[in-house]
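User: I'm putting together a teaching handout on how multi-component assemblies are represented. Below are the sequence lines for each component of a complex, exactly as they appear in our records. Could you produce the 3D structure of the whole assembly as C-alpha cells, so the students can see both representations side by side? Please keep the chain order the same as the input.
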Amino acid sequence: MDYLITEQQTMMRDLARKIAQEKIKPVAAHYDETEEFAWPIMKILADSDLFGVYIPEKYGGLGGGILDMCLVTEELSRACGGIALGYAGTGLGTLPILLHGSEEQKLKYLPDIAKGKRLAAFCLTEAEAGSDAGSIKTTARKEGDKYILNGTKQWITNAGEAEIYTVIAITDKTKGIRGASAFIVEKGTKGMEFGKKEKKMGIRASATREVIFTDCEIPAANLLSKEGMGFIVALKTLDTSRPGVAAQAVGIAQGALDHALDYARTRVQFGAPISSFQAIQHMLADMGTQLEAARALTYATARMADSGAKAMSKDSAMAKLFASDMAMKVTTDAVQILAGYGYMRDYPVEKYMRDAKITQIYEGTNQIQRNVIAANMLKEAHKN
Amino acid sequence: MNIIVCIKQVPNTTDVRIDPATNTLIRDGVESVINPFDAYAIEEAVRLRERCGGKVTAVTMGPPQAETALKEAISLGCDDAVLVSDRKFAGSDTWATSYTLAAAIRKLEGFDVILCGKQASDGDTAQVGPGISAHLDIPQVTYVKKICEINDKLAKVERMTEEGYDVLETPLPCLFTVVKEINTPRMPSMKGLMRAKAAKITKFTAADLDADPAALGLDGSPTRVVKIFTPEPRKGGEMIAGSVSDVAKELAELLKGEVI
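Assistant: Of course. Below is the structure of the complete assembly, with chains in the same order as your input.
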C-alpha cells in the first residue's frame, strides 16, 4: 500500500531497510543467542544519521518526526526486534527532553543523540509500579542546587549501554502523582549503578537491567519541566512513543511474514508447493491484511503526533494495542506455516514470535491500553 | 590531499545471464551497480581524506545513466563527481578507456592519489587502473591491501601476493588498485544521500578533453574480440575404489602413465 511518504522519508526507509537486511539480518541469531548488545550495529546506525531522523535540524538532526522514527524502527525490527530496540529505546529516552526540555537542555543533549554518539533510556517502571505507575517510590530530594535520587528502577531498556537517562522520581510524597518530577541523569554520575542483566524470552539483544540510585547527586538544572510535572512528562512521552512500539510490532510481523511467504512458495508436500493449498493461502491473506491494517493505523497515529495534536492518548493506545496483538497473531501463524521447522531454533521464525510478545506488554500492557481507550471513548461520549 | 577514485557501473553479477545464441550479457532488466571492487576504492579514498584532509573526486566513463553510480559514490562520502560520457567513447577497450580517463583526470585540479578497484566484475581485465597510471606516467601499485603510511610525498603500502604481501614505498602522485581485504565499505548516510540528490555532476565530453580523436572509442581500441564462448563444463574425474594402499598404487600408476 502506498502511504504517500515524502522523498526524504522514502530515502530513509530504504536506507534503514538496506542496513537491516545487509547488516542486521545476518547477525540477528547470534545476538539472540549470546544476548550481547549489538554495538557494531549501533555504530552503523549512528554513521548513517538514522538516530537523528526525528530530531530538529537545529540540534543536529534531520528535522523529521515520529513517522520518520516509526519508518526506521519498522525496518530494523523486520530484521531483529531486539537490536531495533537499542534504537527505539533511545527514542523513548529522548522524547522527554525533546517534548519538555529547556533550550539549554536540548542544546546540551540532543546533538549527541542525533549523531548516535550517546544512547538514551527512559526510567519509569519499578518493582511495585508496573501498570500502576503512580506507585513509584524512587525519590528526588532537593538540597541547594542539587537533587539527590534514591530508589531502584526496574526493567530499563538500554540500561548500562545508554549514557543519558530520563528518570521519573517523587519530589513531594504528600501530593501523590502530582508530586512526581522528571530528571536527566548521565551515566557515570556517582551513586548510579546498574543491576544484573535480565534473561528474557525475546528481544534478547536488548539490554534490560535495573538502574539503582543511592544518594545520587545531580545538578538542579537537570530537572525537566517543573517540579510536579513528572507524570505529565511521562504520559506525554508514552503517548508519543507508542506509535514506535506499534511500528516495532509491524516490523516484527513483516519479518515473520517474509519468511512464511518464502517458505510456503518453496516447501513441497503432496507434490506441490504448500502455497498452492487454500488453507495456507487463506492464512497468508489474513496475515497480510491484518499487517497492513496495523501499519495504516500506526502511520496515521504517527502523522497525528507530528501534526502537533494535543490529546492523542486514545489514538496511540489503539495503534499500540492493535499492532502488537496483530504481531503476536501473525508471528504465531508464521510459525504454524513453517510448522516443525518453525518451532526449531535453527530457523528464524520462532524468534519473531518470542520478540512479538513483549510488544503486548511494555509501554503499558494491552489491558492498560484498553482501559485508556475505553476511558477516552466514554469521556467523549459524555461530552457529546 | 587530492584523491581521485575511478569507478565503473556494472550489471549486478547476482542476476547476470548469458544469451546462449550470441554469448553476450543480457543487460535488459538487470540492475546496474557500482563494481563491487570499486566500493573498496571509494571507502579507502574517503578514509584517506578523513586521515589527511583534502577532497575526493569520483570519476567514471560510461553512458549517461552511469550518473547514478556517481551519485551513490557521493552518498558514500565522495565530495565531487565527474562523468566522462560521449558517443565517441563507445566501443572503447581497456587501452582507449584508460587513455580517456587519464585525459579526464588531467583536466582536474591536480591529484596526489588515484584509487581503483583491482578489476571490474564484468570484464575482469584488471587493466584500466594500470593503464591510467601508464598514460599519466605515474607509479602504480596493484592489489593494495593496506595503506600503512602516507604524506604529501610518499606512501608505504602492502601489496597482496599469492603467498603473503610485499611492503612497498612509492613517491606520490601514485595510482593504487585495491583488493577487498583493504577495508569494509560503510553504509551510505542520510546526509550523504541528501547531498548526492542535490549534487551537480561535472560532465566531460570528447571535446572537453585534450585527446587525440583517433585514440578514442572503437577506432582507438587495438583489442579485437574474436570470439566469446562459454567453456565446456569439465568432465567428472575418475574414481578409484579399494583399500588405501591399493588406491595409492593405482593412482601412482595412472599418474606415471600421464607422464606428469
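A couple of points students might notice: Chain B touches chain A through nine residues (CB under 8 Å). Residues 133 and 248 of chain B are 52 Å apart (CA to CA).
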